[in-house]
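> forwarded from #structure-qc
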């Protein structure tokens, strides 16, 4: 979480405190000073410059500092019998938090959580309705603390010399996506084909690379849907789904990769390099997805969100021309039109155009548990296996198998 965001959260929480505190103060002061409570409040705060202003009735409901100081000034007369003695200590701490915030002091995520804890505790004590929103803010910060701890734990210990070497090589890309641990970026840019040349580490690091890509896929999926939900509220579910599919297409992810100049930094195996794999959309989209997973581990979800949103905007405002490149796949003399997002339909259309029999799927549970099963599906055309895939149910497994078959057909130049 950035310093600015910490201050914004505390400011918002202090404003919520002021909203809840003013009705409480008014009610309690009126019990003791029924005819002139506001004048009594102003006179109690005469040593405060803000209170001496002629518009005190206007500023007091919004000035949490004056409200808290009034509680201290009127503790014995008004609030002592209403609040426990420990609450005056909280009031003093809240005044200090407010002053630090007003002076633009730097707040860590831990500081922010502690501030929200005290504000929430006090607002609960006066039974103000704002407590529900404050609890939500505290939960958000709590998750961020956990995330920061997670990021710290998985960062790698590397020497200053190695860090400088990595940063020098990746200087241009680091200007656009500022990793705190540059070695995580280097891991994401290292393709499995490159790792195969070091067989002692290949299996372990390949699995790590796959996990980065998997993590990146889930983040891209979530953040793109979240963005569309908030920025396209007038769109229907089907329209949102169509925009979502546009954002996560390999061609668009490859464009994101090219915007970062990833093709200049990705490390490929010799065979893949000779085949100019860094020009392939599929490969670039996979590497970009791994970079997103690594950036999350390094800096958290908010940093990833802030990084991706300008890309989403540009991609939706300036879409790739899909008419020829994506929506019509030319197969010999046929135009294979893709009219929906179902890979099983794509595959069936393709085999029909080729005069082949309908694809058949053989699907069965291959692992997992009764509560969380894993299914494996294999797709055959004329008894020839075209692809396979796993999923948490039969439908997802068959979809993955069709996707796998289509990827293989693309790689062979048949689509």
């Amino acid at each position: 979480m950035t310093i600015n965001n910490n201050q914004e959260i505390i400011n918002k929480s202090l404003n919520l405190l002021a909203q809840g505190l003013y009705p409480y103060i008014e009610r309690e002061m009126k019990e003791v000073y029924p005819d002139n409570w506001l004048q009594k409040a102003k006179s109690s705060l005469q040593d405060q410059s803000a209170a001496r202003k002629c518009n005190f009735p206007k500023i007091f409901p919004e000035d949490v500092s004056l409200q808290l100081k009034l509680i201290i000034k009127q503790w014995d007369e008004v609030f002592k019998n209403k609040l426990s003695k420990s609450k005056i200590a909280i009031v003093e701490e809240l005044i200090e938090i407010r002053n630090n915030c007003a002076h633009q002091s730097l707040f860590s995520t831990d500081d922010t959580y502690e501030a929200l804890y005290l504000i929430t505790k006090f607002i609960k004590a006066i039974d103000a309705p704002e407590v529900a929103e404050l609890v939500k803010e505290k939960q958000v910060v709590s998750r961020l603390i956990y995330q920061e701890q997670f990021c710290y734990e998985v960062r790698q210990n590397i020497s200053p010399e190695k860090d400088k070497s990595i940063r020098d090589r990746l200087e241009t890309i680091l200007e656009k996506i500022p990793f705190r641990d540059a070695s995580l970026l280097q891991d994401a840019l290292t393709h499995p084909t490159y790792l195969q040349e070091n067989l002692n580490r290949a299996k372990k690091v390949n699995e790590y690379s796959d996990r980065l890509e998997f993590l990146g896929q889930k983040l891209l999926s979530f953040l793109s849907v979240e963005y569309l939900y908030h920025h396209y509220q007038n769109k229907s579910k089907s329209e949102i789904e169509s925009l979502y599919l546009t954002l996560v297409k390999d061609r668009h992810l490859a464009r994101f990769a090219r915007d970062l100049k990833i093709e200049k930094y990705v490390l490929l195996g010799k065979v893949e390099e000779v085949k100019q794999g860094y020009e392939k959309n599929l490969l670039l989209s996979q590497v970009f997805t791994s970079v997103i997973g690594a950036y999350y581990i390094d800096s958290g979800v908010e940093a990833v969100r802030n990084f991706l949103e300008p890309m989403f905007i540009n991609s939706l405002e300036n879409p790739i021309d899909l008419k020829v490149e994506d929506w019509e796949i030319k197969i010999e003399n046929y135009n294979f039109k893709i009219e929906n997002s179902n890979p099983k339909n794509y595959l069936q259309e393709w085999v029909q155009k080729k005069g082949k029999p309908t694809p058949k799927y053989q699907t069965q549970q291959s692992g997992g548990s009764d509560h969380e099963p894993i299914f494996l599906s294999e797709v055959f055309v004329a008894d020839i296996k075209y692809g396979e895939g796993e999923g948490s149910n039969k439908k997802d497994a068959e979809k993955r198998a069709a996707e796998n078959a289509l990827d293989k057909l693309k790689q062979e130049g048949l689509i």
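QC bot note: The two ends are 45 Å apart (CA to CA). Confidence is low (pLDDT under 50) at residues 200-206, 322-340.
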